[in-house]
Amino acid sequence: MQTAKFLVTGAARTGKSEFVKSLTEHDGDFGSLQVNDELTIELSTAPLDGDLTDILKNKVGVVLMVDGRDSDTFVNAPQIVTHLRALRHLPVIIAVNKQDLPDAHAPSEVREQFPDSDVIKIFPCVATNKESCEKVLLALIYQILS
Ligand SMILES: Nc1nc2c(ncn2[C@@H]2O[C@H](COP(=O)(O)OP(=O)(O)OP(=O)(O)O)[C@@H](O)[C@H]2O)c(=O)[nH]1
Ligand SMILES: [Mg+2]
Questions:
Q1: What is the DSSP letter of 117?
Q2: Using CA positions, which residue lies closest to atom 30 of ligand 1?
């Protein structure tokens, strides 16, 4: 049995816990999901303002949640990604959450924050919707395997 551990981080109230809950049915900052006899996925959340060094040690990828309704959570996304990559060079995907709400910023608007040379993946997300969260997680897994 192997366990693949992912970190879900981002600013306060961006939807980190909701993302974990939709995928794992666990309420809170941690949840696990048994894919099959060989693989378990563990998701844990952590705020951006703490020291993530130890938290990142056993992770295989990072979901950076931003709130599509709150540009304050993504104007500094390039700096956050640079910071995360400096701590540990892991695959990172950005989930632009709350796409179900009116006037949510689209992933393309988050993309505009990044230099053209940055190949980071940016996905729409509705953290309250399981299928939407699965798409984000699968995209991150494909990135890890590529
Ligand atoms: N409409 C809508 N509401 C969402 C979505 N994701 C999260 N929310 C709501 O936004 C609020 C914050 O979501 P949480 O999952 O608690 O966010 P968090 O990042 O874990 O917040 P902290 O742990 O306090 O930093 C809650 O009221 C959620 O129900 C979404 O995709 N759509
Ligand atoms: Mg939370």
A1: T
A2: 98
